[in-house]
Amino acid sequence: MKIAVAGTGYVGLVTGVCLSEHGHDVTCVDVDENKVKMMESGKSPIYEPGLEELMVKNMDHLYFTTDYKKAYVDADVIIIAVGTPEKRDGSANLAYVFGVASQIAASISKECVVIVKSTVPIGTNDEVERLLNENPMELRVHVASNPEFLAQGTAVPDTMHASRIVLGVNDAFAKEKLLEMYEGFDAPVMVCNRRSAEMIKYASNDFLALKISYMNEIANLCEAIGANVEEVARGMGFDERIGRRFLHAGIGYGGSCFPKDTKALHHLSAQNGCEMRTVKAAIEVNEGQKYKLSKKARKYYSDYNGLQIAVLGLTFKPGTDDLREAPSLVNVPVFLEDGAYVRAWDPVGAENFKKRIPDEHITYYNTVEEALKDADICFIFTEWPEVKELPLSRFSELMHRPIVMDGRNCYRLEDVRRVPVIYESIGREIVNTIES
Ligand code: NAD
């Protein structure tokens, strides 16, 4: 099958590469010339485990271009996978999706299927269909909704062995083409109408966001009453109706999806006269949670002026170089405004962070240990393996004052109690083996 993919971000590039692995001829289109040059030379512009290897393996039938006309003109299927960032009012910005739809309408020369993979508010596929069917050659364009459920950090296995493939189709031609495209994929396929498919995506993401915010509130209460949120989560997880996953408390969810998708669904629900108050609460809890650790740390230092602050992890989660909505982005500026010096470590996120927050008072280190050296306090924002595997004695051996504020509950409390440290985490007791 001849497939074109618009947008080579975390979704578009992974989708294109995985479809090429299944034998399709795939052309990936992006407006960013630098990205296209990189991909043409066999380099992935994003960090995603396993992606570059698969990309290089399929280079004989995987192409990259900025020339959208050439890519769309005779494609059987065109996948829209561009961004849908949030607007100031919380709604989804659909300018990129509609922009690609107009480019497709101006380029095609045969009947084809256009798949909307970007996460879009309910009814957007109808609008895309209207734009596409205004094409100058009066060709029939079939539009299908095929939302994406991959998670960054595991995007390649999540695509090759998806939890489900949701096909939102309103006609038989589109259904047949999509089933053909996904033939051989190891995943259950669910066929439904387009609006249901659009809704499945938001309903899934927002449910997960709710689950996280719920556990974060439970964690805050655990701290107040002396319970341990990890034990609580373990006890809850035995119940199959609840499940074991997504019960980890922390300093809030980030990333390119949960924050914007909760806001977009809340906006859509309010607009339609049935405001989702559960989703609104999840958003509010998450906002407060991001600042939880730096607020708690004020009991050790009333201001951070002149302090050396070690920051372990900058990305919103391990396994990705993506910083979108990461807790580090809101906390590091607080430290800098107070006059602190930040000693940052992240295995893949440092370059992106330098672009987002260029500041001469941030120094980047290649190892966790270098970042910890002589620090007055340490904040853990991402649970990278290098952080979890660090021998706990290194905090007291390297730091000026071993105060560790762990936003991701990286360590077991019984291990922490064996070393001289002040340790605060989320939803668990404070360990202080130094000061009585
Ligand atoms: P991204 O920001 O990483 O990538 C979007 C890409 O589209 C960029 O490279 C940009 O240059 C390109 N682009 C913009 N306009 C273009 C045009 N006219 N033609 C071609 N390329 C163009 O986005 P992403 O994280 O891959 O997300 C894409 C969509 O998928 C969003 O709607 C998102 O909500 C959804 N989604 C994301 C994830 C995730 O984990 N990132 C998971 C599921 C769904």
Describe this structure in words.
With 436 residues, the protein is of the alpha/beta class. It contains 19 helices and 15 strands. The chain has helices spanning 10-21, 33-40, 51-57, 68-72, 95-107, 124-132, 155-160, 172-181, 194-225, 229-237, 258-271, 277-290, 292-296, 327-337, 350-356, 368-372, 385-388, 393-398, 413-416; strands spanning 2-6, 25-29, 62-65, 77-80, 112-116, 141-145, 165-169, 189-192, 308-312, 341-345, 362-365, 377-380, 403-406, 422-424, 431-432. Strands 3-2-1-4-5-6-7-8 form an 8-stranded mixed sheet, sandwiched between helices. Strand 1, helix 1 (10-21) and strand 2 (25-29) form a beta-alpha-beta unit. The structure holds nicotinamide-adenine-dinucleotide (NAD). Nicotinamide-adenine-dinucleotide (NAD) binds at residues 6-12, 29-32, 35, 81-84, 96, 99-100, 103, 118-119, 148, 150, 152, 256-257.
Q: Name the average pLDDT.
A: 97
Strand order of the largest sheet: 3-2-1-4-5-6-7-8
Backbone structural class: alpha/beta
Oligomer: single chain
| Beta-strand percent range | 5-15%
Topology:
Elements: E1 2-6, H1 10-21, E2 25-29, H2 33-40, H3 51-57, E3 62-65, H4 68-72, E4 77-80, H5 95-107, E5 112-116, H6 124-132, E6 141-145, H7 155-160, E7 165-169, H8 172-181, E8 189-192, H9 194-225, H10 229-237, H11 258-271, H12 277-290, H13 292-296, E9 308-312, H14 327-337, E10 341-345, H15 350-356, E11 362-365, H16 368-372, E12 377-380, H17 385-388, H18 393-398, E13 403-406, H19 413-416, E14 422-424, E15 431-432
Parallel strand pairs: 1-2, 1-4, 2-3, 4-5, 5-6, 7-8, 9-10, 9-12, 10-11, 12-13, 13-14
Antiparallel strand pairs: 6-7, 14-15
Helix pairs in contact: 1-3, 5-6, 9-11, 9-12, 11-12
The protein binds nicotinamide-adenine-dinucleotide.
Nicotinamide-adenine-dinucleotide binds next to helix 1 and helix 5.
